[in-house]
Design brief:
Helix content: 10-25%
Shape: extended
Radius of gyration: 26 Å
Strand order of the largest sheet: 2-3-6-7-5-4
Oligomer: single chain
Number of strands: 11
Largest sheet: 6 strands, antiparallel, barrel
Length: 182
């Protein structure tokens, strides 16, 4: 009889424990759900970044989600972005991607999905993922890329460069590009 009583107490304890776990699990799920809900949601946006009264960049996106209240805040562009960068002389660099996320506090933008950067002088870089360091105006990736210019085409894996392609560092590289002396 003692073993039957102990078994009954154990089963009662296990039932109470499992019932309380189910309730706690639902509470935890609710916390996680609310934690990653965007604090801001915008459709069809155009953002203009200025410095000293001059336009430095224009960002156009059909959808923006702002996660400003999470532990590591970020802004997401789930339907992609079109960005135009302007240098000091007004030359433009165009950027397009199918998805983008900007990590607040790091000045890094992660561009993903058919990323294409082109300049006014017909230089084009295409890749699947590219990071942009806003503070230093520098792009980098470890992914495969294709670079096209009026004087040639090259392919590689891993590249970093400035926004007008005047400074470039490549890792695995193949192809030929004729460069003019300046």
């Amino acid at each position: 009889m003692k073993s039957t009583g102990l078994l009954f107490i154990f089963l009662l304890f296990a039932t109470v424990f499992l019932a309380s776990c189910d309730s706690n699990l639902k509470d935890v799920q609710k916390i996680n759900l609310s934690e990653f809900s965007p604090s801001g949601d915008a459709d069809s946006i155009t953002l203009k970044y200025t410095d000293s009264g001059r336009i430095k960049a224009v960002l156009i996106a059909s959808k923006m989600l702002d996660y400003a209240t999470v532990k590591y805040p970020f802004t997401e562009f789930p339907k992609g972005v079109d960005v135009t960068l302007y240098d000091e002389k007004g030359k433009r660099t165009y950027i397009r991607s199918n998805y983008a996320v900007q990590f607040k506090g790091t000045d890094i933008i992660d561009l993903q999905g058919k990323v294409k950067i082109s300049t006014e002088d017909n230089q084009v870089l295409e890749t699947e993922q590219l990071y942009f360091d806003q503070k230093n105006s520098w792009f980098f990736t470890e992914e495969k890329f294709k670079f096209s210019a009026p004087k040639g085409i090259s392919n590689g894996e891993g590249i970093d460069f400035n926004s007008d392609f005047t400074l470039m560092n490549t890792q695995k590289f193949s192809g030929e590009i004729e460069q003019s002396e300046q």
